[in-house]
Amino acid sequence: MSHQVIRSDICIVGDGAVGKAAALGLAQAGLSVTLLSAAVDNSTASMHVVNALPDALDVRVFALNHVARHLLHGLKVWDALDANRIAPVTAMQVQDAAPDAKAELGFDAYGSYISELAWIVEDGNLNQALDSALRFAPNIQRMNGSAEKLSSDVNCARIRLADGRELQTSLVVGADGAHSWVRGQADIGLDYRSYGQQGVVTNFACEKPHHGIAHQWFVAEQGIIALLPLPGNQVSLVWSAPDALAADLLREPLSSLAERLHVYCAESLGRLTPLLPESIKAFPLRFIRPHSLVAQRVALIGDAAHAVHPLAGHGMNLGFADVQSLLDIVINREAYRDCGDARVLSRYRRARSEEVALMQLTTDSLARLFGSEIPAVRLARSAGLNLLNRLPLLKRKLISHAMGK
User: Residue ranges of the domains in the chain?
Assistant: First the structure.
């Protein structure tokens, strides 16, 4: 073991899409960046699937909003994505599919004077484009290593690796997932609650054209079903299913899962057919709210900073909004302040706290509301959906907020 000291302006721990985007943006601004692939949340990392066939679609996809697209375009990553594998979302149909419920809510891009509500992008497509950009970016060193200890003082932060190396930096950015090692080392407490659900994901071909419409059904005790448009007549399933049901879905053939879904999508999408090679994955759903987004010379982004229910599809969007905010604040700081200055981190905390809290409150409340089987609650939520569907001005405001505007 050798005590080698490696210095950089910023060290980012975790090399998922959010961490890569942060590294790229900071390096493009002229800062030296170390991107450490260590202590990453395994439950998130395991979702990055290498396809057995080059043209096979990833089962993990993201609905990226306008803020995410703007960030990736500014990083010169958006145009590097394989455009043939991106599906624009032009409308969304939401239905309360609980017994005796007759409620629906529709959003469309045309009614909001825009061309797209969001874009469905595969995990592999996104990460490959980011990796390509990182290979040609100056000021970035990518490292692998087992991180053992994080310490900081008024002058710098230090990460000690198991092989004896030490990383010294002005700022440590925790982008290492829901089980963040950085967050734990910084002694940042958190509120944690499991939803008792798994996000079950897989892909299907659909008999009828989807026309760029994303469909979502709230099915009470069976959770929340979403079918998102993919290129061609294909859709991506995201089923927020209770743990016991999720176990059944993972065990049964995908043809049986398609039959389950036919009850909801027969009219809009027709018969569903599993795509080859067949693949289905699941990841735990949980609510995670750290007591702070920052500590001494530490900032949290992505799932390390917040975990939300996927019913609104905004987990990755919140992470990219974290990155954009951190870039703006670090790049525009006063010349006499370093990247990890307490005042700089305080600005980041203030900039992100309100939006993150609002999104967590909204998604958590909706998950509870649509999971309730109390008759009075069911009637109230159905009435609320139907009323909202008849208020175009309010719907446009909700769409604008979802797009990050």
Answer: 5-402
| CB-CB neighbours of 250 under 10 Å | 15
Q: Which residues of 321-341 are buried (b: 16+ CB within 10 A; e: fewer)?
A: bbbbbbbebbeeeeeeebbbb
Residues near 386 by Cβ (< 8 Å), separated by ≥ 6? 102, 103, 104, 105
Please tell me whether the overall predicted TM-score, pTM, comes out greater than 0.85 for this model: yes
**DSSP codes joined into one string, 339-363:** TT-HHHHHHHHHHHHHHHHHHHHHH
How are the residues of the chain apportioned to helix, strand and coil, as percentages rounded to the nearest 5?
Answer: 40, 30, 30
Percent with pLDDT over 70 in the chain: 84
| pLDDT per residue as tens digits for the range 39-63 | 444 444 334 444 445 678 999 999 9
Structural tokens at position 282: 């699941």
CATH of 5-402, one of 3.50.50.60, 3.30.300.20, 3.30.460.10, 3.40.50.1820: 3.50.50.60
Q: What is the pLDDT of residue 375?
A: 62
